[in-house]
Design brief:
Blueprint (H helix, E strand, L loop, with lengths): L1 H21 L5 H20 L11 H4 L15 H15 L1 H6 L7 E5 L6 H12 L2 E6 L10 H19 L4 E7 L2 H4 L9 H14 L8 E8 L7 H4 L4 E6 L5 H11 L11 H7 L5 H17 L7 H13 L9 H21 L4 E5 L9 E4 L10 H22 L7 H16 L15 H24 L2 H14 L1 E3 H15 L1
Parallel strand pairs: 1-4, 1-5, 2-3, 3-4
Antiparallel strand pairs: 6-7, 6-8
Helix pairs in contact: 4-6, 7-9, 11-12, 11-13, 13-14, 15-16, 15-19, 16-17, 16-18, 19-20
Length: 501
């Protein structure tokens, strides 16, 4: 019947307008007001202002409890998983903890870089506790209409409780990703829409009573914890803060094995080598490495992934896809000398660290040297950082030695060098000693910065000048092959050093 009435209404409107025109009525204002009203009605419906709740519409289909995702399927986060599972035990073993007077946690905050598995851990938490799982992003609560965000927070909690009752479950987990969007520090005296949404979230968390059934647990994720309002971080709201950091070598290897389960690996392929070469990669990047390696194998019509495919995939994830840039021959030669400068210094200060030297353009880089970190580092000495700076300066130093001047290709190298010098200053590893940047003049900082970089550049040039034979032996082969493996480069390096000796 509603369809019939709708068709009758659609047919009546143009007839009515024609009738008004016949009577001499100006219908333009009517059309304008009708169009404006229809647009506002449509916007409010799609944004959740009228007839749509935070848990309504499309969200209902994506908030189902994830099946078959367990903590065993998340690699590289043993410490974080252990801490999270302990907190979840408070939720499911409420009778046992009541005897000790332990208050179950209301909120868990997962912090760490992007791609480290925070969302996966929240989903695994729902599976571990057999809970209803509701997911939302902080941006979903941000609206141009006052009060809509706060209304959505209320509706999210209301639907979590209703679904838990409907599905006969004792617990419900609400996961809010990117909570820094709505949980940022509030301005004194300001009344933003964000503040109203945050205030409502705080109120809802205060209203969680641990003895009520169903029990509600909030899990939030952010990679910008320093931006969060202190009211969110206090005990009684987000009681436990769990750091989900970048995986170490053991963690990287575990992640690679998980994502390699459905991929054929050629005989002799070792994922341990890939784990060595991916220091600083997140879990998402490691998954991307294996996926790109499989794509390279498919391009070459190979039945299984081989070690070169994994090496190319690491380059792809780090630098981007190979480009079709055709550089002039003179420019390519300069790039070759530049990259050899990096590689020679790296081999001198850290033998065996060069994994690959190439002059093939990839991403925005015309050439690059991929290094093999011997082991994961979390503490750095002054000597170690100075060696890293010299490796970064090696390209510019080689250009100066060969051509008498630098090019714009050294820009990124200088940015890295400046960043490392700042790190040295902040750690008290320079002649300035332990400093507070606000108590030191800009001139002093610039003077110290220049002194460090100038001294290291002189050392770098001297070391490269003593290795001219390496340039001569490696340059022609690099120009011809475009790619030198670490082992090939070391063979050329050792042969050149032997001749010069």
């Amino acid at each position: 019947m509603s369809k019939i009435y709708k068709e009758i209404g659609i047919g009546f409107i143009p007839v009515f307008l024609v009738f008004l025109v016949f009577l001499g009525v100006n219908v333009i204002p009517i059309l304008f007001v009708s169009a404006l009203g229809g647009s506002l009605l449509y916007m409010m419906k799609t944004r959740g202002g009228i007839g749509a709740s935070a848990g309504g519409g499309d969200r209902k289909s994506k908030n189902r409890t994830p099946a078959f995702l367990t903590f065993d399927e998340i690699g590289g986060q043993d410490r974080a998983k252990k801490e999270l599972m302990e907190a979840l035990d408070f939720l499911i073993k409420h009778e046992e903890i009541k005897k000790l007077g332990i208050r179950p946690l209301k909120g868990l905050l997962l912090t760490g870089p992007p791609g480290t598995g925070k969302t996966l851990m929240a989903k695994a938490a729902a599976h571990y506790t057999n809970s209803v799982f509701m997911a939302a992003s902080g941006s979903e609560f941000v609206e141009m209409y006052v009060g809509v965000g706060a209304s959505r927070v209320r509706d999210l909690f209301k639907e979590a409780r209703a679904r838990a009752v409907k599905e006969g479950k004792d617990n419900a987990i609400i996961f809010i990703d990117e909570i820094d969007v709505i949980g940022g520090k509030r301005d004194a005296g300001g009344q933003r829409e964000y503040d109203q949404t945050l205030n409502q979230l705080l109120t809802e968390m205060d209203g969680i009573h641990t003895n009520d059934a169903p029990r509600i647990l909030i899990i939030a994720a952010t990679n910008r914890k320093e931006m969060l309002d202190s009211a969110l971080l206090r005990p009684g709201r987000f009681d436990r803060h769990i750091e989900v950091d970048l995986p170490d070598k053991k963690g990287r290897l575990a992640i690679l094995h998980i994502h390699a389960k459905n991929k054929p690996l050629a005989e002799g392929v070792t994922l341990e080598q890939t784990a060595d070469q991916t220091f600083g990669f997140s879990g998402a990047q490691l998954e991307g490495v294996l996926n790109e390696a499989a794509i390279y194998a498919m391009r070459e019509d190979k039945p299984a992934i081989e070690q070169p495919h994994l090496a190319s995939a690491i380059d792809k994830v780090m630098m981007g896809e190979r480009t079709d840039k055709e550089t002039a021959n003179g420019e390519k030669e300069r790039v070759a000398y530049h990259e050899l400068g990096h590689a020679i210094i790296a081999e001198l200060v850290r033998p065996g660290s060069v994994s690959q030297v190439t002059v093939s353009p990839r991403g925005k880089a015309l050439g690059y040297v991929r290094h093999n970190p011997p082991q994961d580092h979390y503490l750095y000495t002054k000597d170690y950082i100075e060696d890293q700076i010299m490796i970064a300066l090696g390209g510019a130093a080689a250009e100066e030695m060969i051509y008498g001047g630098r090019s714009t290709g050294s820009r990124n190298d200088f940015e890295q060098s400046l960043s490392m010098v700042r790190n040295m200053m902040d750690a008290g590893l320079t002649s300035l000693g332990i400093i507070d940047r606000e108590m030191v003049t800009k001139e002093q900082l610039m003077k110290e910065n220049a002194a460090i970089l100038d001294a290291l550049m002189l050392r770098t040039k001297k070391m490269l000048d003593e290795q001219r034979n390496v340039f001569e032996h490696s340059f022609a082969i690099l120009m011809k092959e475009e790619v030198l493996s670490g082992d090939t480069f070391r063979t050329l390096f050792d042969a050149s050093v032997s001749q010069s000796a």
